[in-house]
Automatic annotation (TrEMBL):
Its EC number is 2.7.13.3. It holds the Pfam family Response_reg. Residues 129-156 form a coiled coil. This is histidine kinase. Residues 168-411 form the Histidine kinase domain. It catalyses: ATP + protein L-histidine = ADP + protein N-phospho-L-histidine. It comes from the Bacteria. The keyword Oxidoreductase does not apply. It is an enzyme of class 2 (transferase). It comes from Zoogloea ramigera. PANTHER family: HISTIDINE KINASE (PTHR43065:SF50), SENSOR HISTIDINE KINASE (PTHR43065).
Length: 426
């Protein structure tokens, strides 16, 4: 409960204000300026002081001056309660640091409204102060903490991407799991039939061999042995394919979202693109044709998991930009002797000139609520810059958009900065 200190040399005024405030606040009372300073400096410190102006020995102005001079009480808002109505008195009070004035005779509704406003304002200021202190502490921790925060943000964006795709990924997994389960049920029935045939062959009987052979052949015909033999092989092949599909999706998800895979290494961009397209498949397979135009690429020195995040952002954006049916084209190739290019193009609705200007701003998004964080392209540009690369975008309304990444094969790394390349202009 918020604490309000009421200061007035008139006992009736103290009692009136106390009764007005006690239903909502904890009230402390002081009948003189000296008592007010003592109480304001003790715990619990008041969240607001209602201070009478005209008091003997020490008037309200002097009390406020001393409160302002003390570091411990400087931030406590002071509202003067006075019968004075002249502008000079108010101007003097505001110059000394008063937050507001309440005039006597006190009107309960007006007083409570102004008091609540000051309490809310103090709460907001305290919240901002705490946040500012927190940010100052974070800044003081230096480059290492900044890098940790950036990595956490990047990982959060990765997981947000996975979260947004989770329904589609679940569907991609459930499909093969569903037909594998169905195939296993069929295989169970086929095994029962096969065991029946085997048992008939192994059963001891006094009947002649020709009769037993005829009985077994009759059983095989009734159980459609020839069809069963062929279908068992088809079911096994189909089930193997389904299990491999699930294994590949899980492997791609693990590779995409693994937080620890953040070191620089030589990597195949085509492998990263294929894994990313596999994860994002559910976003485009029903309404987009995927065209891959892969050129000859050497391995490049990079952080593969981070570039995969860039590919994911661009592919998902491309799929979401296409209304109805369309085409997504992924093109790769070498540029000169020391760089490679990856472009992701769509035939979607395009981006307006205003949107292009703001495209890489943090939290800017044209997507509906829940479909984007507004950080994807911001982080993508940062990742490309860390690789000493460039990201360019060309778009035309109604025709589509092309994002082009140009990356050095072996960026010059700053050894003293733990192999992190400096940012390059886009």
């Amino acid at each position: 409960m918020k604490v309000i200190l009421v200061v007035d040399d008139d006992a009736t005024n103290l009692r009136t204000l106390g009764e007005l405030l006690r239903p909502e606040y904890r009230v402390r009372l002081a009948s003189s300026g000296e008592d007010a300073l003592r109480i304001a400096g003790s715990d619990p410190r008041p969240d607001l002081i209602l201070l009478d102006v005209m008091m003997p020995v020490m008037d309200g102005y002097e009390v406020l001056r001393r409160l302002q001079a003390d570091e411990a009480t400087r931030t406590i808002p002071v509202v003067f309660v006075t019968a004075l109505h002249d502008e000079d008195s108010e101007q003097r009070g505001f110059e000394l640091g008063a937050a507001d004035f309440i005039h006597k005779p006190i009107r309960a509704a007006v007083a409570l409204s102004r008091i609540r406003a000051q309490i809310d304002a103090r709460t907001a200021r305290e919240s901002l102060r705490r946040k500012a202190q927190h940010m100052a502490r974070v800044a003081e921790q230096g480059a290492e903490q900044l890098e940790n925060t950036r990595q956490q943000l990047l990982q959060s964006e990765k997981m947000a991407s996975i979260g947004q795709l989770s329904a589609g990924i679940a569907h991609e997994i459930n499909n093969p799991v569903g037909f594998v389960a169905s195939n296993l049920a069929a295989l169970g029935r086929y095994l029962d039939d096969l065991f029946s045939i085997i048992d008939a062959c192994a059963a001891e009987s006094g009947a002649p061999a020709e009769q037993r052979l005829a009985e077994v052949r009759g059983l095989m015909q009734r159980l459609e042995y020839d069809y069963l033999k062929e279908d068992v092989l088809d079911l096994l092949a189909e089930s193997k394919e389904g299990v491999e599909r699930v294994r590949q999706i899980v492997a791609d998800m693990k590779g995409f979202s693994h937080a620890g895979a953040s070191g620089w290494q030589w990597a195949d961009l085509h492998g990263g693109l294929d894994s990313t397209l596999n994860i994002a498949r559910s976003t485009f397979k029903h309404h987009c044709t995927l065209v891959k135009r892969y050129g000859e690429l050497p391995q490049i020195h990079c952080i593969p998991s981070q570039l995969n995040q860039v590919f994911m952002n661009l592919v998902v954006n491309a799929a979401q930009a296409i209304e109805g049916s369309g085409e997504i084209t992924v093109t790769t190739g070498r540029v000169g002797d020391d760089s490679v290019q990856v472009s992701i193009a769509d035939t979607g609705k395009g981006i307006s000139p205003e949107g292009l200007r703001r495209l890489f701003e943090p939290f800017y998004t044209t997507k509906p609520v829940g479909e984007g964080t507004g950080l994807g392209l911001t982080l993508s540009r940062e990742i490309v810059q860390r690789h000493r690369g460039q990201i360019e975008v060309n778009s035309e309304l109604g025709k589509g958009t092309v994002f082009t990444l140009t990356l050095p094969i072996d960026p010059v790394l700053d050894i003293d900065a733990d192999t992190e390349p400096p940012a390059a202009a886009v």
